Amino acid sequence: MNRPRVKICCIADLEEARTAIECGASALGLVSEMPSGPGVISEEAIAEIAARVPPPIATFLLTCREDTASIVAQQRRCGVNTIQLCDRVSTHVYDELRAALPGVSLVQVIHVTGRESFDEAVAVARKVDALLLDSGNQNLPIRELGGTGRTHDWRISRDIRAAVDVPVFLAGGLKSENVAEAVGAVRPFGLDVCSGVRTCGKLDEDKLKRFFASVEETTDQRR
Prior knowledge:
With about 220 residues, the chain is an alpha/beta fold. It has helices at about 15-25, 45-50, 70-80, 90-100, 115-125, 155-165, 180-185, 205-220; strands at about 5-10, 25-30, 60-65, 80-85, 105-110, 130-135, 170, 190-195, 200, 200-205. Helix 5 (about 115-125) runs parallel beside helix 6 and helix 7 (about 180-185) packs across helix 8.
């Protein structure tokens, strides 16, 4: 079993980006305007960070935009190499994004709220490069599109991972204390963590190192 890739989300500035990469991050999450949740920074800050991140680190723009024109314009302003669609979009949007942004990866977030999320994930998977399974709730009056710090039913996430042909990232309430259980339950391609490696909203290098150590130990035990 290969070690899951790790995406550190809610990166606030260049210093946090450097710390995450030095500890072993394969990807960074850069959060644009959202209806709720932590980690939002300006598009100017996102562009500055994305421009300084060395290859092959992936830079994910987290967006709640739902129409092609807005998403394309946002990507061009920010210069990221991956779009993380945090809300549902119409099917035609995926094709339009492919045409407008060749070479930019598309990752669709699926908020796992129940068994209906399985059908949603399977239907969307063929349109994107990866799925990210999180614990938000799009049906609340103020939509939760990530950053809740809650886990969800990993049995559903496991079933999604087994049913689709694209990489699956697991998110939602992960931390060093539970990541071994999460990896064992889901066997994801990647992990996405925000609050689990932060203290008072700031990236905590000690927590980050413990998280990576737990991931490495889990992988070693399963080889």
